Amino acid sequence: MSTMLEDALAEAEAALARDDVAAAARAVRRAAAACEALAAARARLDPRALARAADAQRRALARAEAGRARLADALDRTARSRRAAAAYRRG
């Protein structure tokens, strides 16, 4: 397996372990680029590495979606609170 791919996968897994979604996304992109470079060079791609890359991507996307949902919920609660406060002030 390519050192570049192995490094990117290790970095993605470490970033996910520490819940750093942005770093995980960058590492997953590097892993994808490494896979593309290996494929372009007609190198044999290790199925285990591809499975690790797919898993890292799935986990990073799931964490990003969870973060997006939490942000949307917080924004919704803030908007409701502001509307309620404004209605209260209006009497």
What does it look like?
The protein has 91 residues and is an all-alpha fold. The protein contains three helices and no strands. It has helices spanning 3-17, 21-40, 47-90. Helix 1 packs antiparallel against helix 2, helix 1 packs parallel to helix 3 and helix 2 packs antiparallel against helix 3. The longest helix is centred in the C-terminal third of the chain and has 44 residues, at 47-90.
By DSSP, the count of extended strands is 0
**Outline, from the CA principal axes?**
rod-shaped
Question: What structural category arises from helix and sheet content?
Answer: mainly alpha
Largest sheet: none
Strand content: under 5%
Number of helices: 3
Could you give the order of the helices and strands? Answer: HHH
Q: What value does the Rg take, in angstroms?
A: 20 Å
Q: Give the N-terminus to C-terminus distance in angstroms.
A: 69 Å
Unreliable runs, pLDDT <50, ≥5 residues? none
The overall pLDDT average reads: 89
Helix fraction?
over 70%
